[in-house]
Amino acid sequence: MALSDDIQLLSQVPLFQGLDGDQLRLIAFGAERRSIQKGQALFREHSPAECAFVVARGRFDLYTESRDGMAERQGTATPGTLLSELALVTMVERKFTAVAAEDGEVVRIPRSLFHRLLEEYPAVARILEDRIRQNLVDLANAAAAMAGRFG
């Protein structure tokens, strides 16, 4: 894929919407595109997350391990989905396992590259901080809405 394709893909990711061409080019140029075969795990639940991934092609099923050790499907990531966005900011562990439901490709964005973006474009840091904060608030609200299910 061409650099321009990756820039176009990144511009559609909600976290990166509104970034200008130079900012997106910095991410796209420093990111790594990876092919993933059907059935292959992109990453596993509880593993350290030193990067985020943007799904470029294909579908990835997302699983968590239940209390009895069985894998429970939690959803599917499709093109344009950003997986493990908090890994761009700090060391976290993966909250699920992502397995390719079909042959696909991802764009790997290392934390160090994201930090470089923030250093070179300080105004972007404020925009992205607000977006990440809002994503966390939305997640907390969704969890609170499900509190009645856990007795």
TrEMBL record:
SUPFAM superfamilies (UniProt xref): cAMP-binding domain-like
Domain of life: Bacteria
Record-linked Pfam families: cNMP_binding (PF00027)
Record-annotated Cyclic nucleotide-binding domain positions: 15-135
InterPro entries xrefs: cNMP-bd_dom, cNMP-bd_dom_sf, Env_Response_Regulators, RmlC-like_jellyroll
SMART domains: cNMP
Record-given protein name: Cyclic nucleotide-binding domain-containing protein
Organism: Rhizobium oryzicola
